[in-house]
Amino acid sequence: AKKAGRNTLRFFDPLMQETINMRVDLERELKKAIEQKQFELYYQVQMNSAGQPSGAEALIRWRHPERGIISPIQFIPVAEETGLITQIGEWVLNQACLQLQAWQLDQASKDFSLAINVSAKQFLQPDFANQVKNSIRSFHIDNTKLKLELTESMLIDNIEYVIHTMNTLGEIGIQFSLDDFGTGYSSLQYLKMLPLSQLKIDQSFVRDLATDNSNKTIVLTIITMAHSLGLNVIAEGVETDEQLQLLNAHGCGNYQGYYFSEPLSINEFNHQYMQFKNN
Ligand code: C2E
Ligand code: CA
Ligand code: CA
Ligand code: CA
């Protein structure tokens, strides 16, 4: 189960099976997975421009007893449709806070930030802000190291409520990163209104950075715009030195991708990046 980032198994391929039966099965299996705690977080390192690890993004995996590791691409959409995402998301939040607590006790990792992905349905739950506050409180972590990754599409329809919740959490130091930036519909108007600290450039733009001139222009424009709005920028999906050099030359500042590391199990991650490697 080592290279889970890339070589995950794909059982629930909608093109190959009867979609409806599959959905029912998957929903039933997901409920069981929640009860039996079959989920696991993997951690992908984030690097700063000095080449130092500054934190990680937590990415969920489903360790199925018979089927092995299942990618979130296979089950998060169904979890969102069925509403099970709120329970899964709450587990992710608590697990992430538990991990931050461990890192904050270690000299080498005490300043690490940890980003988690938050689905629209989860974020729009009336008690979401309280959930976050409760988790932070029960694990005694430094609030400012928890980062929530939101996507553009979830913001637009509920902009006022979203801003309100973001402000509630922003006041206690929680950070927000706008995920998959460039793939949605955010206007500059929205960007200005949202209390964000970071834009995350989607990997689709990073992929052909060195070969596709329009993608290069898009990336450079995002970086310039973000900085002029006082936001920091992270590029996801950095796979080559060439991409890194280009991004670095244009002041991107933060990087994540296979060039540095795939997402790792907690033991592997701690072994790489923590001083005390005994978890
Ligand atoms: P995302 O948030 O855009 O995460 C980035 C995805 O790109 C991850 O896939 C990551 O493993 C992969 N990746 C990282 N570096 C590279 C690279 O250099 N090249 C390429 N080609 N890919 C790279 P993963 O882990 O399969 O996650 C897929 C999506 O599932 C995530 O996309 C996110 O939308 C969702 N997801 C993952 N964990 C959670 C979670 O805890 N909660 C929710 N709601 N969604 C999650
Ligand atoms: Ca993400
Ligand atoms: Ca992405
Ligand atoms: Ca995404």
UniProtKB/TrEMBL annotation:
Protein name, please?
Diguanylate cyclase/phosphodiesterase with PAS/PAC sensor(S)
Please indicate which part of the intact protein appears here, giving the first and last residue numbers and the full length. 691 to 969 of 976
Organism this protein belongs to: Methylotenera mobilis (strain JLW8 / ATCC BAA-1282 / DSM 17540)
Q: What are the EAL domain coordinates in residue numbering?
A: 23-277
> Per its UniProt entry, which superkingdom is the organism in?
Bacteria
